[in-house]
């Protein structure tokens, strides 16, 4: 049985994108990216909404860009090897291999996917994650907290939800980033 993990880079004040939709302030440097690569190895399936999928589909061809450092190439390989499920009512076709499109998020189908999976699953993007959190599907929360306060934008956690958590792991990086891993208590 796989765990459903919600993991994203977030600002210290809890935003994944600022008020202008920018998230470049949280782009990981080599040390943090190598750690994210290692964490991602357990993921067999990514669950995305359309916008997050459009952002992440960069990794389908990232290895073709000249001069990419090894840690970028490594993440591209890890991402390409995983399955992707994209929840979208507007996306006509996937631009990446190992990808299927679902028209609606069905919590029972995700429960079945978790039960059948030999690997962990990741729900990415705060809008889709909010649906998974509200349905009680998320088993683990991984916050990669960047040393920035952005003052507004799109929040990591949805409003109106309470989940009791247990700290499972933490790590500090040289650039001020902190990794926090929580399990549902």
From TrEMBL:
Q: Which residues cross the membrane?
A: none
* Pfam name, any one: RibD_C
Q: Which residues form the Bacterial bifunctional deaminase-reductase C-terminal domain?
A: 3-179
Any GO BP annotation: riboflavin biosynthetic process
Q: Which domain of life is it from?
A: Bacteria
One molecular function GO term is: 5-amino-6-(5-phosphoribosylamino)uracil reductase activity
| InterPro entries attached to this UniProt entry | DHFR-like_dom_sf (IPR024072), RibDG_C (IPR002734), Riboflavin_Biosynth_HTPR (IPR050765)
Looking up PANTHER family in the UniProt record yields: 2,5-DIAMINO-6-RIBOSYLAMINO-4(3H)-PYRIMIDINONE 5'-PHOSPHATE REDUCTASE, DIHYDROFOLATE REDUCTASE FAMILY PROTEIN (AFU_ORTHOLOGUE AFUA_8G06820)
What name is this protein filed under?
A: Dihydrofolate reductase
Look up and give the organism this protein is from.
Answer: Murinocardiopsis flavida
């Amino acid at each position: 049985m796989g765990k459903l993990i919600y993991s994203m880079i977030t600002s210290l004040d809890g935003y994944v994108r600022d008020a202008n939709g920018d998230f470049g302030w949280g782009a990981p440097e080599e040390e943090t990216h190598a750690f994210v690569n290692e964490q991602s190895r357990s993921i067999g399936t990514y669950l995305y909404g359309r916008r997050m999928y459009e952002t992440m589909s960069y990794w389908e061809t990232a290895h073709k860009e000249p001069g990419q450092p090894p840690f970028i190439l490594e993440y591209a390989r890890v991402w390409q090897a995983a399955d992707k499920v994209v929840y979208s009512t507007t996306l006509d076709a996937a631009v990446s291999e190992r990808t299927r499109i679902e028209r609606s998020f069905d919590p029972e189908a995700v429960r079945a996917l978790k039960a059948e999976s030999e690997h962990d699953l990741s729900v990415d993007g705060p809008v889709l994650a909010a649906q998974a959190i509200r349905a009680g599907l998320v088993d683990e929360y991984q916050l990669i907290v960047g040393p920035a306060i952005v003052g507004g934008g799109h929040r990591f956690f949805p409003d109106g939800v309470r989940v009791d958590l247990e700290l499972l792991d933490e790590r500090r990086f040289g650039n001020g980033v902190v990794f926090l891993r929580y399990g549902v208590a």
